[in-house]
Write a structure and sequence with these properties.
This protein has 2 domains: about 5-170, Cobalamin-binding domain (Rossmann fold, 3-Layer(aba) Sandwich); about 195-380 and about 420-470, tm_1862 like domain (pyruvate-formate lyase- activating enzyme). The chain has about 475 residues and is α/β, with parallel strands linked by helices. It has helices at about 20-25, 30-45, 55, 60-70, 85-100, 110-115, 115-120, 130-145, 150-155, 235-245, 260-275, 290-300, 315-320, 325-340, 355-370, 385-395, 400-410, 425-440, 445-450, 455-470, and strands at about 5, 50-55, 75-80, 105, 125-130, 160-165, 165-170, 205-210, 210, 230, 250-255, 280-285, 305-310, 345-350, 375-380.
Amino acid sequence: MKILFLVPPETESLESSVPKALEGGKGYYPKLGLMYVAAYYEKVSGNTPVFIDCPPENVSEADLLTRFKEIQPDLVAMSIMTFNLLDALQSARVLKRENPNVKICLGGPHVNMYPKETLNLPEIDYVVFGEGEPIFTQLATTLDKEGGDSDALKSIKGLGWKRDGVAHINPAETELLDLDTLPNPARHLVDVSKYVHIIGEGRQFFTIQATRGCPAACSFCDIRKTTFRCRSAENVVEEIEELVAMGVDDLFFVDDTITINKKNLLKICELIVERGIKINYKISARVDTVTPELLAALKRSGCYRIHYGIESATPRHLAYLQKGQTPEKVERACKWTRQAGIGFFAYMMIGIPHETREEMMATVDLAKRLKPDYAQFSICTPYPKTELYFEMLKEGIVTEDYWQRFAENPTPQFKIKFWNKDFTEEELRKIQDECHARFYRQAGYIMKQMAKVKSWEDFSAKVRMGTKILTSRLSFG
């Protein structure tokens, strides 16, 4: 059986709560989840699949069709978020027009939330929900050996499938994977040089994952209160060594909160130093999960930036979002981070239900006071199946389950809404632009960033980012 793992061309992606100028300026991140599934399938089956990541490879729809004809796969697998569901469906239609017998399998965050709705879409033959590595591999090997026998498909937990046009959703797989047993992502199937991040610290960028899950309760997040698991420090550092051998010198740990298990992270830092590994890397963390000791170890081992979800300067809005943190904890963690010599990226949020314009500006003032390297002001958006979405439905702020409607009937006409009773979408976008302008145009910010330039590549990256920010409709002083 020939299998194609596909990241589809970006043709009809939904707009997010981040300004287009910033969203489109970050470069291309590897699709690590899909690479894990490809690696697991390759290890178990002994077959080498094909992997096409269209956006970084600049593969158009026409180019994809040409390569599809050359490969002639039997099964095409895509991992999707709600934002690129339309892209995946468009590619599925194009490929099925060329070969009606090809099977399409979708997995990923959107499918985890809407397995039956996704399977009911005419372009889709199979869905995988849950941790996809073993589930997809069972599907592929079953199709190879049994030819899609119904009894065989029924036995695969976490699988959705069709027979004679009727959708069948099997029970979910409840047993979680031992992360140390997973093979490293199938990076050998892609061109590593195609992945870039314009505000990185090295020449070659890639991603890595040391943990899964997050025990925090943030109401806007779709993985809130999920089981947190770690790979062993030795397992992680061995992968870092493999990446360095491939020429990677800039890593981003895509873990939601890698700092939950401080002991394991400290061991990772120690091993990097002990083995003399030269690597630059950045992580994401909650402000209440860092300590001076941990920050010092991170700095010694190559950490140059931490991404903090700060959100708001107002305690009542932090409580509404169930962040479990205070402005005081935020300021303390950011102070410690600066003292450790590590930069940080501040994720801020405006347009929270019941928030006034003055409170939004207070959040900008907090960001300016914290002095992060970068700040991003997103508009509070209730994403599907989040606690925030259900709460806003309950309050009547969101007047209909419009994400459910989109899942059942995804169309290009769909537009994400911000659902704020006090401000129109246009007003929120203007305020968002003003927030970015007030932060990035503050006296001394540009000179401070230029003083940190280490190379021509670093200078070029900062200029590109700055140009995008200052030309993205930012007309405020």
